[in-house]
Amino acid sequence: DPCTDYAACAPSRWLWDASLVGEFDFTPPVAEGMELELEAPFGTFTINPQPYLSFLAHMDSHPLQQRGQGNPTLAGTLDYVPAQNGDAVRVSASSRLAYPTVGNLNLSSGTLALWVSLPEEYPTVRRQRHYIFSASANPDANPIYTGTLALRRELDGQNQPYWNFWTSPESGVEGRNDLRIPDTLAAGMHHFVLTWDRELRMKALFIDGQLLATAVGVELAQDVGPLLELGRFGPAGPVSNIAIDDLAIFERTLET
User: Fold this and answer.
1) At a CB cut-off of 8 Å and minimum separation 6, what does 246 contact?
2) How many CB atoms lie within 10 A of CB 168?
3) Consecutive H or E run containing 167
């Protein structure tokens, strides 16, 4: 019994079947009240990934990434809908999906790309800000939110929608930058690419393969917190009713 070799050991709940009795001298899980799980743990791996690709999640019926460090942070039940390639995942008000930034998101120089299914109508929320993703070291530090990297859709003073590649460094209000372009997109799938370089002090936004906006002389954060939240700002923000597919993060700036 391998349990005798460890200071603390509990019977395994994984892949137990009576036919395994006697094989490798494993002890059957007979702990009182234990519910057996007969489905295997889920895992993925990627063969010969692209150079500089640090993270990749296809979202095909499960949130576990094909490449990247750590495990997703999950809550509730995620919804999966048909998308550009396989499935896309939608976060609801009662669910949550976030990925670790450490080891996956290079803040010095990087690119984040993802397919997004935009809705016919966006949910009504107090500030009419609908996030595609967000990462913030201070998600509760209203109104400055130092250490933030995010993409959101919002309304201007004339109720006209626009996209905002929003960054806020450690210096606060003085370094905040809102890279805005009008939202002329129809409902359905669209490809968003955000790229940045802290040393060159630049960032840019591509949509559907077109470079639509660039900012230079921008101060970028050195820390945006531990998690990349999908479909909302922070763990408790309102959701955007979007679906996300093929989230990829690269360790270098996009070359055009």
Assistant:
1) 56, 57, 58, 59, 84, 85, 113, 114, 115
2) 26
3) strand 161-168
pTM of the complete model? 0.84
Which residue is associated with the tokens 């890279």? Answer: 179
Contact yes or no for 107/251 (Cβ under 8 A): no
What are the CA-CA distances from residue 45 to residues 56, 69, 72 (Å)?
A: 10, 12, 15
Kindly state the helix (H) or strand (E) to which residue 110 belongs, with its residue range. strand 109-118
CA triple 172-174-176, angle to 5 deg: 65
Q: Smallest Cα–Cα separation from 209: which of 115, 104, 105?
A: 115
Q: Which amino acid is at 184?
A: T
Q: Which residue bears the tokens 């990925």?
A: 99
Contact 88, 245 (CB under 8 A): yes
**Distance between CA 206 and CA 212 in Å, rounded?**
6
In this prediction, what percent of the chain has a pLDDT beyond 70?
83
Give the model confidence (pLDDT) of 120-168 as tens digits: 999 999 889 999 999 999 999 888 899 999 999 999 999 999 999 999 9
